[in-house]
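Appendix B, record 7
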Amino acid sequence: MIDPLHQFTITPLTGINIGGVDLSFTNSSLAVSATFLLIWAVFTLCLRRGRLIPERPQAAAEMLYGLVADLIDANVGRSGLRYFPFVFTVFCFVLFGNLTGLIPYMFTFTSHIIATFTVAAAVFLFITALGIVLHGFAFFGIFAPSGVPKLLLPLLIPVELISYLTRPISLSVRLFANMMAGHTMMKVFAGFAAMTGSFCAVPIAVNIILTGFEVVVAVLQAYIFTILTCVYLNDAIHLH
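Structure tokens (predicted):
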């Protein structure tokens, strides 16, 4: 029997225990490290020969740059471009993390809620801190929108507060659930293909189609994650 959930098992590669705290380097840690190295390698190789008329690798890197810059400009405005490095880092980390998980025998760390929640929490804390730095205590006015009757404020403020605090949960769960469901489905159909052998091409064809679909989902989830980050950044800058 092929267990479709076995691929999500976190396995320690080195046993490290300090003061009763398990600090082992795991397959998930390895995947995160490999993703960072891959991002560095890709952009270093693509941009090492910067030219006015870019070659294909440089054009591909600039396309990603332009995509994120356009997202910030459309959702935040020109004032949001000063925070481009943060948004671009989040986009590349999620995108490459999703895509590297599709490589055979690679661990998909974005299919774990703890990994996606960590990224979402970093976005949440950065944006909250930015809002407080830019506006001081006036930032908390987003929980009481202007024009709302004062009688409704005791009801509206808790609702707005809960909605704000659940942002990292919604961000992380959306990414984790999509990646985990897609990889589980691929594993199930791969098991069907393995059991039927060469006698039936249908499961193999379906698995190829699912792989292409998962590539689209991986890119789309990174895109959605980045759009929502831009929307939250807009709230922090403009207090909408």
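Remarks on this record: Helices lie at 27-47, 56-75, 84-100, 113-135, 153-165, 167-196, 202-238. The chain has one domain: 6-238.
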